[in-house]
From TrEMBL:
InterPro entries: CheY-like_superfamily, NreC/VraR/RcsB-like_REC, Sig_transdc_resp-reg_C-effctor, Sig_transdc_resp-reg_receiver, Tscrpt_reg_LuxR_C, WalR-like. This is DNA-binding NarL/FixJ family response regulator. CDD domains: LuxR_C_like, REC_NarL-like. The keyword Transferase does not apply. It comes from the Bacteria. Keywords: DNA-binding, Phosphoprotein, Transcription, Transcription regulation.
């Protein structure tokens, strides 16, 4: 099954480089290129790619707003967005995940790692490495208005084990690591993750992390 990709970046040279890389992969193809956020939203709506490689700083509308529009629209809600930037992501990671991005990488990432990230997102998972999770935790720690917020009713439908798995997801652990930490198999951990996605109506693990922290189930530190 071929993974379809749209590339959004305001620099033609960067777009061209990504296109050559992606098209060279046997399991991927580029459907189109966008030079700004508005074009990215339009292409996503017309072409329905599996993954959009999205630059953050672009004209007309930026990558974060474009991501928000793509993930919020009914006809493109299945499209995954991988945010790419030349800047350190500290100031962007929270906003990007809030907008619905499923992954976050710097542009100096190794080519093979970028291709693997596209595959991870296309498979329905999120690219949320522990270092990105730590940045997200710091963002929540710096928001005093969160303190003492109650767990909403949406979490009351989760079993004790599902809440335990959600806590581990918020720590940035993968299914194998969650299984080892909770003394269950990786397959069982995967099943719990799938149920959490369904019950909480989350797009991917990135949104599960957001829910864990915003609900108060998990607190920084």
């Amino acid at each position: 099954m071929t993974i379809t990709v749209v590339i959004a970046d305001d620099q033609a040279l960067v777009r061209g480089g990504f296109r050559v890389l992606v098209d060279a992969a046997a399991d991927m193809t580029v459907l189109g290129e966008a030079a700004d956020g508005a074009e990215a939203v339009d292409l996503a709506a017309r072409l329905h790619p599996d993954v959009v490689l999205m630059d953050i700083r672009m004209p007309v509308i930026d990558g974060i707003e474009a991501t928000r529009r793509i993930t919020a629209a009914d006809d493109t809600e299945a499209t995954k967005v991988l945010m790419l930037t030349t800047f350190d992501p500290d100031e962007y990671v929270y906003a990007a995940l809030r907008a619905g991005a499923s992954g976050f990488l710097l542009k100096d990432t190794r080519p093979e790692d970028l291709l693997e990230a596209i595959r991870v997102l296309a498979a329905g998972d999120a690219l949320l490495a522990p270092n990105v999770t730590r940045r997200l935790i710091k963002e929540f720690a710096d928001r005093p208005e969160r303190n003492g917020r109650p767990v909403p009713d949406v979490l009351s439908g989760l079993s004790k084990r599902e809440q335990e798995v959600l806590v581990e997801i918020a720590g940035g652990w993968n299914n194998t690591e969650i299984g080892a930490r909770l003394h269950i198999s990786a397959a069982t951990a995967k099943t719990h993750v799938s149920r959490l996605l369904l019950k909480l109506r989350a797009r991917d693990r990135a949104q599960l992390v957001m829910i864990a922290y915003e609900s108060g189930l998990v607190t920084p530190g």
